């Protein structure tokens, strides 16, 4: 009875606290804009932005690309969700990209992005993205802005602490948010959480020549939640850091039950040592099933393979490479400053920000300055690793980025503000309101060794009154601040697509000159390519009809097709013969399950169509490609099942050649 009372009181007081915190509003409601702000974000028509900003799409499963400082939306890159705009996930070539061990999934939740790095600086080659729901990591090629690879992560659930990469993109690392039962018997009572559940951290090896991902090994950890992570750099190069919550190991009402302890952990992993253990055969090979999907830019085709093995390492059985550092109040972000010395933990419910020192951490580990262990993993004493605490920074710290000039910028969800503080003396230097409830922050290069500085972008959860009302749901929103001076200056609001979480930015020069303009038709190795109109043809194989069709301004070849029957599987393999920048053609056929596919110049792309009734069906180009785009059309005649209408096809054939019966 007493227990129940104190429990419900606790529940009540936490609820009151949260309601009280949630009602905090920025003081400066008007968000005064200086007169010069417009000039700073104005990019004249025809001029380029200075930075690319890659922004996660949250629940839309995509990545969007904005120009900074203008805030102009440049592109949406489909990653974990089908994309009606260009046929990603609908075309036969891209369908395998969305395969998983659970079958094909058309939609996921995308939270965090990380640019590939060389020497701790973005190199403009690849962008990594996580799928939060069904754990996967994707690699986007920044020459084509296409998703080129997706690797599923077994033994993981809620791939939130992901994807973060080491200084030379040796690994992309992903920690599981939810611990789950792992191994042969997973049908266990939920109340067996402490006994039967495990967390995992996956190390994905990246092939530096082509970016190919492979699951190198997984760490088996105690059953806690991993929230975010970041790699060390410089002196801390060999280490990876993960924020952990639910050290209480609750499996129900985490809101209360996972907020009991004063401190959770940051987990420090020496990945170089882990590699050594793997080399010395200390890993255990486990069975599991996970999909590995690769898109090939030469065949313009994706394949999906199911992998069946994963190497695991158990840190409670192997010494000296995993440690816990106590960190107050359910830390969310863990961010490492450009020097690699300072580790910033952001406790969502904490009233201060602890900053740990890598040097002190190493000394503490060497001296075994421990506060016992947590399930076989040593816990370093808080004070021994602590550099200092930022006092009264704000309410609800989430994420920190750096400007490379000795300053850190932390987002505060509850008090709706960005706070700039000094890494040296941990003094607050400036604070500016956000509109409203900021989540992530991005400074170009802001989590690397050499931030480019200049701007800070805040990604807000709530937009409220910032834009014209659009019904109950409003766009999420980003805000751009100039951080080149002592004080931050708000320059611009711009709406975003989906819900932005982490974002990354880099100077446009690192990408724009390598951007592919079209695919060379002579290099097209698609099995159903048509390299010229003379090669266009229609081939029947049983009930499958393969249409080798070309598009060029402003016609298809063939554009008249007869001899298709109800119940046939018709594959339109459309090759876009154009060899010119920005001239895609689209392809659509009436009654198809999909609106269209969009084919880039030099590419081949396939739309599958199963006609369900006799008739004559128009086909047309969906992308306004030329003055005679509306003339870019044709017809497919469909006869009843079993009919013997002969197969005839062509473009501009004499009537006598087509209409024989
Ligand atoms: S987490 S705020 Cu995925 Cu911070 Cu979004
Ligand atoms: Cu091709 Cu419109």
What structural category do the secondary elements indicate?
A: mainly beta
| Helix proportion range | under 10%
Query: Which whole number gives the mean pLDDT?
Result: 93
Query: Count of helices?
Result: 9
- Biggest β-sheet description: 11 strands, mixed
Bound molecules: (dicuprio-$l^{3}-sulfanyl)-sulfanyl-copper, dinuclear copper ion
Low-pLDDT stretches = 1-24
Question: Can you tell me about this structure?
Answer:
By secondary structure, the protein is mostly beta strands. It is 10% helix and 44% strand. Strands 6, 7, 8, 9, 10, 11, 12, 13, 14, 18 and 19 form an 11-stranded mixed beta sheet that branches. It has a 6-stranded mixed beta sheet with strand order 42-41-44-45-39-46, with no helix packed on it. Strands 36, 37, 38, 40 and 43 form a 5-stranded mixed beta sheet that branches. It is globular, with a radius of gyration of 28 Å. 50% of the residues are buried. Mean pLDDT is 93; it is low at 1-24. Bound molecules: (dicuprio-$l^{3}-sulfanyl)-sulfanyl-copper and dinuclear copper ion (CUA). (dicuprio-$l^{3}-sulfanyl)-sulfanyl-copper binds at residues 111-112, 160, 332, 398-399, 439-440, 501. Dinuclear copper ion is lined by residues 551, 585, 621, 623-625, 629, 632.
